[in-house]
């Protein structure tokens, strides 16, 4: 009988075990069947913030600015190699990196025949010559690689004529001279930097028969009036009296010979005779006490040169086909310690810190992060523009945002951000969590809001973001590709100076010591920019829900609408043009954006499917694209964004409408100019309605 | 002691149970943690194929063609209601449906003053008048809603002049007349349909000083030469002797007053005086035995009319933001039984079958299916074009493919498909599984390949797809939005007839009885088209991996390249233009497309993550977009696709290149025309390189 008992016990035990197994497998739900979707990890963020080192940035800058690195120069090429080396480093590099070379048209003065400006005496002899170079006050302004101050792309020529002072060389300035009865034909116009773009001065002058243009820097504009050697660099932040600003005088951006095509060797190149956008008359920036008459001799040369971009990528772990793009240009006019190497130094430190975490296996971002070092920016955003022409579709379809850090520190008082509304929220989030340099315990955000603020109907008092023009490499991304973009830097306390820009801008005095002594001793502002940019990058690349807030566009649209109603409403009514459809379109956008925001909040409370969130993120990423219209501004080059195209009209509203009204204002009803006003209005209405349509629940038509 | 035994047994039992539970929960992996991703269900496909009913299609057609339904007429509006009713049916309707109305410029003859063409005698008196209407042979050709034959958009006027016969009204025809010494100034040109587009005949004529154009249908072109009443409808398939083809004579497509803008009430409208694309001289289609001189009196009127599209949607279950779009136009010239109601009848049956499965809860597609009924196609693809202008971004970002079925049955011999290469594979898959109408046991595919075939270097003998011009509503989708598209219909056995098109095309003889007796008795070809379209829709909407095969573009590119090398290579070399970069670009595309195909195959063998497949599907869906360039053809309206824009050059290669070479051929080296050749070549190279870049692994730059 023992064996039946044993058998019985055995069977019972097996049955219990089996029952347990069955219960355990089927009846008790597994906690999380799929792992939680990859999301922003605050510990990683903390680590990155802590790792970004001010002293390493300083040492980066020292190396980068050690020698002049003009676009396509041998030293510029050396820096390409430096970047590749750092980005391929086995311990702190990226997944992969490579250089990509374009053949672009640049412009240089002649080494054999320097540009000269001479004052001519009554007998025709030279009584005074302007300095051809800046004074060698620190030992770094001499040397064959310090390019003479010149106006890039200005044509060669040797005009001689009476000197006329034309203020900033704006159209009004020349009109004013005409009104005063001054004969402009054949004169040399002396203008000062500022007010209008460099190239525009020459264009305006030539229209009035002027034969040559000189441009100088007025100490009042740049130096708070100071000019003696004691009061200026190397003794202070200010520009020495011999300082001259270089720059590109080309009207557009991108390689001049290959509009809309990448400047690869095989691309069609426009005939030099047919290139538009070059200054029409010899132009030369100077510093000089002038009398007249004046000989101007410009011997600039156009040259086809190789210019490289360097690109490196950290591949996204989950959504590798979504790119967070971070760019800085590499080329300078001379030493370029501020412009652009203060930004390159930050770029190197950011990529080092992120690359180190990557190589250690600690972290891989959800989305891909692409680092870009652009070439030939100083000549007209050339490297970045050619890149967008070459990879137009790929970038437009996949880029979440473009972050530009050109100059990282103009001055060390406060953060300054330019960008489109959807990026506002991620910048606010980032800066609230980072300590501001300087005394006290403020966040970057709390310091920032004291310098740049606005009263938002939605948020109350917040820091204000500037808008994006064409001042740096974000231009092709926002205007040509319609990618939400931003530019980040530290900048001045405007109550302390009225300098138009940091005084040694584009001069041979923009050196490491200048930065180290007068701009950001300790490099804590450089570090603040690195942390801000790093935090923004991580939030964009790692957050499950993309931190782009499209409903923040509603404020902009509402503000543009109100300006149009207030300042153009009566005029439009006189011409039987109603703003009603625009009102409707703005309201529709506001409503759809708000509703989408609600849907996002609801989703965020649950455990949404990654595919669902992906679909939503696509709506957010692609919203900026809906404002592009390549047929809106046929007379412009690249500009296609109906909210941010250049505005020449005075009313701060939709640029197409503002500009068209400005042109039509004094014309008769029914003129072509008034038809263009209607067309521009319809273009905006269609864009806003189309934008709203993309924000609707995706399966609603 | 019993209780210790009981206790011991109890504890042991609990331990065993607990152990079992632990083992079952943790040690045994759950089989499929997430449910299998939604994929094409062959049973659903079978069901749909079986449900599509030829007789229901027939009854649909009877109702649709019962009365004339000219765009914007009351009957056209009735049909809008009919569609809405069907699509909102609780048992067989869609998720939602609505109509969307535009205000568009159409053109009609005057009811009070019909267009007339008279032959004038020597004294100026009318000796013979052409018939103003077609003969009422079935009782359906009379009635006030049968619009008189006319040339839509031709201007009013009453030219009188000597008649000149100008064949097809092509440029060569007028040149030939000039060569013969015939004085064209002030004449009336008699032309026949075919050869060149309708509007082009008037444009060409006007260039030579012709005062008015008449267009007739040559029985040789339409009727295999037959013309007596006994040999023609209602006794046969052929056009009765009084038949006249109506049509739009507008050069472009879309509403003429709102290019690139949707024709909503508030949109900017071009001044009538500034509209381009209307025929410049009075034009009238006729049937007449003519002598000369001839009075032509055209009293057409331009009118702003409301035209509706009807849209209905079945929301996707998994990827609702991916649209499979299926369209057919609703408006006709008269009864339109073939054009377009043969297609509308199919549309209604397809949406009924799919709607029924939906409402029963049997099925919901993975992606969204959108059904569209377009208005005012006959006047120039207006409804579909306005739709693409209104929702440009939304459609471009989300539409997987556009399927057009305008006329579903031209004749009942074989399938005919036009489309871009990526859709070839899904059409092949669909048609291999559907039985062909007619005797025998052939599949549609096996019947099709006997009529239209080509020798593919990759596949061997396969059915050939035609390319997409601007003949129907696919035009804005492929040319303006860059969405992979197709047009499906049944068509003629060309060994049996050389009719340019089914003989009663655009006449009052295109009636239900015509279809029922002579085109497709039994409606089995209608059913075959419905099944083909239905299967394609389901495969596109339900397959986990999108059945768009981008590597099938390689053959097209290779073929275009070879034609360029053979027929243009020498000419280009003479002008120092190398095709090398084009060769490289084609090879790069081929390589990347092939590699992508490999990656897909590998993925398909495993259980890939839906997000991974989504990223891949995005690459496939968006490939067609990479061939769009809105700046490639500035003189064209909407055309932006660098592979399929209109080709006027004789060499069958990239149209921009073919056309530019044609224009440059007889000009000197260095001319603007040769610069344009280079520009067009670079445009293609850039597009192909850009396309290849989007096919690379997504995290490779």
UniProtKB/TrEMBL annotation, chains A, B:
Residues 162-247 form the PA domain. The keyword Ligase does not apply. GO terms for molecular function: aminopeptidase activity; metal ion binding; metallopeptidase activity. Keywords: Aminopeptidase, Calcium, Disulfide bond, Glycoprotein, Hydrolase, Metal-binding, Metalloprotease, Protease, Signal-anchor, Transmembrane, Zinc. Its cofactor is Zn(2+). SUPFAM superfamilies: PA domain, Transferrin receptor-like dimerisation domain, Zn-dependent exopeptidases. Residues 577-696 form the Transferrin receptor-like dimerisation domain. GO terms for biological process: proteolysis. Gene3D superfamilies: 3.50.30.30, Transferrin receptor-like, dimerisation domain, Zn peptidases. It is found in: Apical cell membrane. One of its GO terms (cellular component) is apical plasma membrane. CDD domains: M28_PSMA_like, PA_GCPII_like. Its main location: membrane. It comes from the Eukaryota. It is a single-pass type II membrane protein. Residues 309-517 form the Peptidase M28 domain. Belongs to the peptidase M28 family. M28B subfamily. Aminopeptidase with broad substrate specificity. Has lower activity with substrates that have Asp or Glu in the P2' position, or Pro in the P3' position. Lacks activity with substrates that have both Pro in the P3' position and Asp or Glu in the P2' position. Lacks carboxypeptidase activity. Lacks dipeptidyl-peptidase IV type activity. This is Aminopeptidase NAALADL1. It comes from Gorilla gorilla gorilla (Western lowland gorilla). The lineage of its organism: Eukaryota, Metazoa, Chordata, Craniata, Vertebrata. The gene is NAALADL1.
